[in-house]
Design brief:
It is built from five helices and five strands. The protein is α+β, with helices and mostly antiparallel strands. It has two domains: about 40 residues, no CATH class; about 90 residues. It has a three-stranded antiparallel beta sheet with strand order 3-2-5, with helices on one face. The longest helix is centred in the middle third of the chain and has 18 residues.
Length: about 140
């Protein structure tokens, strides 16, 4: 059996194809075997008021696709444009690799994988913004 495995803590919520699912009182494991299911772990969700940096903006667009709140085709163009803009600034090897992974995932309609790669850029962006404020 292949697919995505979600490990959920007690009372943790996850959005799967537009439906919010809440775990029970114990830790559990869900195997998602349906290909291209839209999944968003709600504890990882970026809220609208937190969309205040370039990487967060691109992540938020991906999130909207996963939640069913954005048109996939329109969002694909916004995501690709956002990744291109990020690649102008985040040009170290690790960032480039993550951006390439995100681009490939977007092109393959693997929005969850794109979001996962983009979220990995958040700590790096935070460090760069902190360093810029100190300068």
């Amino acid at each position: 059996m292949s697919g995505l495995v979600l490990k959920l803590g007690p009372r943790e919520r996850v959005l799967i194809n537009g439906a919010v699912i809440e775990n029970g009182d114990r830790r559990s494991r869900l195997s998602i075997v349906t290909p291209n299911a839209n999944i968003l772990r709600l504890r990882d969700a970026i809220h609208p008021e937190e969309v205040n940096t370039p990487v967060r903006r691109v992540c938020y667009i991906a999130q909207l696709v996963l939640s069913g709140d954005a048109d996939k085709d329109e969002a694909r163009m916004q995501l690709l444009r956002g990744v291109e803009q990020l690649s102008q600034v985040l040009n170290d090897h690790d960032s480039r690799s993550l951006l390439e992974t995100a681009t490939d995932a977007i092109m393959g309609d693997q929005i969850y994988q794109a979001l996962k790669a983009l979220r990995a850029l958040l700590p790096r962006e935070e460090r760069l913004l902190a360093a810029a404020q100190q300068a």
